[in-house]
Design a protein that fits this description.
binds 3-methylbut-3-enyl trihydrogen diphosphate; Undecaprenyl pyrophosphate synthetase; binds magnesium ion; alpha/beta
């Protein structure tokens, strides 16, 4: 397969019954992609959006049920203001532009993270896109925006503690499945496969609880260059893994 080739069907060497149901991606390396080309970092983010759109389509074509993408971490506020502002505006514009297509493609979009501190105009696009696609039956597409895994766990604890304080829950009611209902990702399966681009071997506060048993695949490719052949390689690697979940 050459770069840019568009396969409608699953590559023959991949076994459809052994595909991950849920793929998560840490879309890293936009800035380095741009730097390598002497372009401003924001150009990398722009191209990154195209790579994400391609991956979503590919997941849909190949029968993957859920895709979760890390778009902005709770730590990314520490970047230069111009970059943060650019990203917020980019998210808003892309969401507005792509909503109709997501509707026609039957995509169910959902945002996870601390959404209440995003710009109000972005919050309103987010709300609208989630409401409009709520009933869709196709791929579940989750975008982690102002997301931090530790923060997610702490807010879940706080909500549960409040329920206990009100007498609506007892401490002994708290188990893993109850706890999951208080996470942003309630109702979404755990990722089977995590892909991180640009070579970094860390999870950067992404889905800490949910990735307890995810298979991790790291590629040196920068996110804007991540395409179907790269995804194919990641899936081939995944299919060679033996998932043991602590058993023998
Ligand atoms: C990922 O690319 C995009 C976001 C975190 C929003 P980076 O912007 O982190 O790119 P590098 O890691 O600096 O190359
Ligand atoms: C992780 O990438 C966050 C996103 C891709 C949105 P970062 O570039 O922020 O992660 P670090 O700083 O390299 O750990
Ligand atoms: Mg980075």
């Amino acid at each position: 397969m050459n770069q840019g080739t568009c396969l409608q069907d699953l590559p023959v060497d991949l076994q459809p019954e052994r595909l991950p149901q849920h793929v998560a991606v840490i879309m890293d390396g936009n800035g380095r992609w741009a730097k390598k080309r002497s372009l401003p970092r924001i150009m990398g983010h722009r191209r990154g959006v195209e790579a994400l759109k391609d991956l979503l389509r590919c997941c849909k074509d190949w029968g993957i049920e859920a895709l979760t993408a890390y778009a902005f971490s709770s730590e990314n506020w520490g970047r230069p203001l111009e970059e943060v502002n650019f990203l917020m505006t980019l998210f808003e514009r892309v969401l507005r532009q792509e909503l109709q297509e997501m509707v026609s493609e039957d995509v169910q979009i959902r945002f996870v993270g601390n959404l209440s501190s995003l710009p109000l105009s972005l919050q309103s696009e987010i709300k609208q896109s989630m409401e409009t696609t709520r009933q869709n039956q196709g791929i579940k597409f989750t975008v982690a925006t102002n997301y931090g895994g530790r923060q997610e766990i702490v807010q879940a604890c706080r909500e549960i503690a409040t329920q206990v304080q009100k007498g609506l829950l007892k401490p002994e009611d708290i188990d893993e499945s109850l706890f999951e209902n208080y996470l942003y990702t309630a109702g979404i399966s755990h990722p089977d496969l995590l892909i991180r681009t640009s070579g970094e071997m860390r999870i950067s506060n992404f889905l800490l609880w949910q990735m307890a048993y995810s298979e991790i695949y790291v590629t040196d490719t920068f996110w804007p260059d991540f395409n179907r052949s790269e995804f194919h390689r990641a899936l081939s690697a995944y299919q060679k893994r033996e998932r043991r979940f602590g058993k023998v």
